[in-house]
Amino acid sequence: MEAIDFARITFETLVGFIALYTLSKVLGKSQITQITPFDFIAALVLGELVGNALYDPEVGVSMILYAIALWGILIFITEIITQKYRKSRKLLEGYPSLVIRRGEIQRDVMKKSKLDINQLMHLLRDKGVFSLQEVEYAVFETDGSINVLRKYIHQTPTNEVLNQAPKPVELPINIISDGEIIEENIDEIDWDIKQVKEEVKKQGLTIEEVMYAEWSKENGLFIMPV
């Protein structure tokens, strides 16, 4: 390779690096910490576009910048859609799955999530859980990680060591998100839409004024207004 080729590759590498870094800053931290299927595809495509462009003399800097800008716009539009329309999030971002409920493995949920018992145990061990008997709830997140709520007796510091009497562990239920009632979740607490509105009204708010609301048996209804 001639010196001019090294200079071109160096220049295009710097341009690609700066453009991708700028794109990541514009799109925000959530694109880094929460990888959705669309984000994964976008990352692969962007990497291929920049990588191939570096070794293709017919592809100039303008084409690299155009490809990065175009994918950036598509990702940005997708984020706007998921922020404004909650129902689109399942399609574009996926949704968390409750794979363990009250200590019982939900085999139908695991099957839908393409998760087998060995993979589940691997994810649990990553969270420092080495026995299913310790788990009350486990949520399989959209980025492929898992979050665990241990049974009361196994929570840290262990209540067993402190000789505390066992208590039931309840999972807080998200019932309002971005001003919309999550109907499938209110069924979990045997409420209906009318009752949710009444409970929210008691706190001087309307459903549209609620950014997030969750219910738990111990603490009742917790509301975070817009």
On the 0 to 100 scale, the average pLDDT is 77
Helix/strand order = HHHHHEEHHEEEEHHEE
| Total helical elements | 9
In total, the number of strands is 8
Distance between the termini: 59 Å
Largest sheet: 4 strands, antiparallel
Point out poorly predicted stretches.
Answer: 29-33
Give the amount of beta strand, in percent.
15-25%
> In order across it, which strands form the biggest sheet?
2-1-3-4
- Category by helix and strand content: alpha+beta
Q: Name the overall outline.
A: extended
Share of helical residues: 40-55%
Q: What is the number of domains?
A: 3
Structure characterization notes:
The protein has 226 residues and is an alpha+beta fold. The chain has three domains: 3-89; 97-154, CRO Repressor, CATH 3.30.240.20; 173-225, 2-Layer Sandwich (CRO Repressor). It has helices spanning 3-27, 30-33, 37-54, 61-84, 89-92, 107-112, 117-126, 183-186, 193-202; strands at residues 97-101, 104-105, 135-140, 146-150, 173-177, 180-181, 210-216, 220-225. It has a four-stranded antiparallel β-sheet with strand order 2-1-3-4. It has a four-stranded antiparallel β-sheet with strand order 6-5-7-8. The longest helix has 25 residues, at 3-27.
